[in-house]
Design goal:
88 residues, mainly beta, SH3 type barrels, 7-stranded mixed β-sheet
Length: 88
């Protein structure tokens, strides 16, 4: 499956290539590792990146799930290369 099949915010990348990728704020702050991506099953659009935070991750203002992971709206993704870069 292509991670960006229905979401223009993310370039066309195979989802398997995103697993475990580092997530960084646009300001250079390392936030953690991509744990999962949620999607709307009815529309196929991507919703949130679920990020396992680094031990030293600063306060980000992002929502957290019940397991202490960041929930970052896919619309905040600015680039996907060596890191997934998100707007903070």
């Amino acid at each position: 499956m292509c991670a960006a099949a229905h979401d223009p915010a993310m370039p066309d990348i195979l989802a398997e290539n995103l697993s475990g990728k580092s997530v960084m704020g646009a300001d250079g702050t390392e936030l953690g590792l991509l744990y999962n991506i949620t999607m709307n099953l009815k529309t196929g659009s991507l919703d949130d990146l679920i990020v396992e935070p680094d031990e030293e991750a600063p306060e980000t203002g992002f929502a957290m799930d019940e397991d202490g992971r960041f929930r970052i709206d896919v619309g905040r993704v600015q680039a996907v290369k060596d890191y997934i870069v998100v707007q903070r």
